[in-house]
Amino acid sequence: MTTIQTSNLGYPRIGENREWKKALEAFWKGQIAEEELYKQLKEMRLSYYRKQRDAGIDLVPVGDFTAYDHMLDLSAMFGLVPGRFPYAGGKVDLATYFAMARGTKEAAACEMTKWFNTNYHYIVPEIGQREPKLTHNRPLEAYLEAKEELSLEGKPVMVGPYTFLKCAKGYASSELQSLLMTFAELYGEVLKQLEQAGVVWVQLDEPALVLEMEREELVWVKAAYERMAEAAPGLNLILQTYFDSVHMPEQVFELPVQAFGLDFVHGRQGNMAVLRSRLFPQDKKLAIGIIDGRNIWRSDLAADLELLREISGYITPDRWIIQPSCSLLHVPVTVKYEQLPDPIIQQALAFADEKLAEVVVLSRAYTGNASAEEAAFASRAALLRLNQSPSRRVAEVVNQMEAIDQLSTARTTTFEERYQKQLKKLQLPPLPTTTIGSFPQTAEVRKARRQWKNGQWTEAQYQTFIQEQIREWVDIQENLGLDVLVHGEFERNDMVEFFGERLSGFTFTQNGWVQSYGSRCTKPPIIYGDVSHDAAMTLQETLFARSLTHKPIKGMLTGPVTILAWSFVRNDIPERDVAYQIALALREEVSLLEQSGIHIIQVDEPAIRELTPLKRSEWDDYFEWAVKAFKLCTSHVKDETQIHTHMCYAEFHQIIDVIKALDADVISIETSRSHGELIHAFQEQPYEKGIGLGVYDIHSPRVPEVQEMLNIIEESLKVLPPDRFWVNPDCGLKTRNKEETAAALSNMVQAAKEARKQLSVKV
Ligand SMILES: Nc1nc2c(c(=O)[nH]1)N[C@@H](CNc1ccc(C(=O)N[C@@H](CCC(=O)N[C@@H](CCC(=O)N[C@@H](CCC(=O)O)C(=O)O)C(=O)O)C(=O)O)cc1)CN2
Ligand SMILES: [Zn+2]
């Protein structure tokens, strides 16, 4: 039998010990120079290539590595520098590149948004401000470097023109067709140069082809790909889709490329149906995404072998490329240094490096290699041990879940009625000001936590330290004149990991970091078993804050859907059931806060939009359980208790109905980077409950002027009810420093006061 080609779609940038993050942040702080940054980045890049090659991967991706984000790399390569940044043309320099990502004093950063249904955020390309041009050939540089330094025949990777444009903003949908042709020329030039350099395979990522697109668009996509194929007729193109099954397979398979990459993990049902209907063209290669690039569990390789056997009935193995389902960007680097408390869980894990090993084992096992076959059965045994582990099932939780329909999922009074009662109790001014929860997680705070976790600090020392932080920031908030205060979340390493650490059913890695945006990483907890509430999680800090002030303190919880979305989740039961389990646990925490006299409780659900299925036809089912989960933990409170929620990075206009269905008394949403679009949405669909539109971007170190925020408030009040409008930043302030935060909040309170004056004049 022939050997089967193996491939990888993309490798994590951050490094085994987050070297990448550390290098970038050192550069931004001025601790290392540009040259040193480049040197370190190059070392990392080459070491990742070596690792992948040594693992036995035939097609090692090049060009996926970045200094911030792969979409921003494309914008820069095409000279798409927004007009507000100075730019003289030519290759975009590093300062401009980072300015687009992070903003400067003079110019606001580019918008950042979720990459499909992941917790990765990309920098949104802005079309129409500067003429697109090919300023340099980035994939070519990466290819040549790998060839020269390592004699590696790399596979250049980039997002394809359709997905690039679908993820961009600044143009009307009527312009898509002509833009596709403009970009086809530019991509064509890139590909031509790659062909001339001797490149064999190029991967063009087109995850947007899994969305339910218009048929017409695919006609345009075809024209664009024909143009690109003409430019580089000798090149082999892999059209790569992921995160779900291709939407219009018949049309997609007509595109002039040499291979199609399909996701057989997250789009298994749809993509297998495509193969079974014999739609896959026999003269193309099939890149089989079979190892899950989105979760950390080992693959059941014995089951994968069975699937491959079925696939061989539709397309012969000499035409296969075996690979992960998507880029490994979404999983941590290696299990090698992990020591989880439960060996059964430890043995069931596979991060990026282990997944590449799985890809190779699978291709060898399929072609009859005995030790690979053995390894395939060992993986099944490891997963079986996990599934049968008694820690997975907790009788009490099972019983609770069975009785779940008896619990309330709706508040007893209408919004109008209870909001009046709440206002009376809370005595707030019009346009009340608040924040989203977290205050700066300074180096000092992180160091304190590390010392406590290492045992260098006692529990008491750490608690005292946290109390000092809370005290300092309650004072600051009072002095600034904010209306609803928070304790600041200093005790939390992360809004999800923190709750995971206090609930049952979760376990943790030491170093399982994943990039979320730019240099920011998260360490998603692992939900391996039934989830339940053990003891109060937030009472101590919240009540301490309350003891320091007469102003209302808002209790802060992370919602069930977000805890689910930002954890690595067991896959032996439906996600919905895990969400309900978390909801039941949070319901208890909400009760504890309420019983302790906390009258405002915020349950953050920033990930509710992220988890929506990519196919709209599956939305209703998802929203039904997502909304139910939220209501399970919030609807049982008294009328006087005000429930807040918060969301960020969402295309809210698509989910306003869902936001309404949550029935939260107040919602705060991020808007500053995409304000206009949202205002427009509220014009069309009025929103009647309490709402705070973020008046400033917290992801940028830039301190906004009073007038800017006043403008946003004024604009918002044209479409939203002034008696229910709140003033707040876009999101939590944990990534900012103290000075920026205090200065920005001071301006925000000022802006709210100005707006109140204008309001009283009008009234
Ligand atoms: N899970 C999650 N997803 C999210 C968000 C979020 O808040 N959480 N927000 C949105 C945006 N994404 C974000 C993701 C990460 C961060 C972030 O601030 N991450 C921190 C890490 C946070 C953390 O877990 N910190 C830990 C560990 C910190 C750490 O690195 N400690 C050092 C030591 C530090 C020292 O001694 O100074 C070490 O272990 O080596 C802690 O505080 O305890 C970072 O990358 O810098 C912010 C936003 C969307 N998705
Ligand atoms: Zn947020």
From TrEMBL:
Recorded GO MF terms: 5-methyltetrahydropteroyltriglutamate-homocysteine S-methyltransferase activity
UniProt KW keywords: Amino-acid biosynthesis, Metal-binding, Methionine biosynthesis, Methyltransferase, Repeat, Transferase, Zinc
Record: active site: 699 (proton donor)
Presence of the UniProt keyword Nucleotide-binding in the record: no
Catalytic activity: 5-methyltetrahydropteroyltri-L-glutamate + L-homocysteine = tetrahydropteroyltri-L-glutamate + L-methionine
Gene Ontology annotations of biological process type: methylation
Binding of Zn(2+), residues: 646, 648, 670, 731
Highest taxon of the lineage: Bacteria
UniProt-annotated binding residues for 5-methyltetrahydropteroyltri-L-glutamate: 18-21, 114, 520-521, 566, 610
Record keyword 4Fe-4S present: no
Pathway where this protein functions: Amino-acid biosynthesis; L-methionine biosynthesis via de novo pathway; L-methionine from L-homocysteine (MetE route): step 1/1
InterPro entries, per the entry: Cbl-indep_Met_Synth_N, Cobalamin-indep_Met_synthase, Met_Synth_C/arc, UROD/MetE-like_sf
Cobalamin-independent methionine synthase MetE C-terminal/archaeal domain: residues covered: 431-753
Free-text cofactor note: Binds 1 zinc ion per subunit.
HAMAP family: Meth_synth (MF_00172)
General function of this protein: Catalyzes the transfer of a methyl group from 5-methyltetrahydrofolate to homocysteine resulting in methionine formation.
Protein name: 5-methyltetrahydropteroyltriglutamate--homocysteine methyltransferase
Organism listed in the record: Marinicrinis lubricantis
Designated gene of the protein: metE
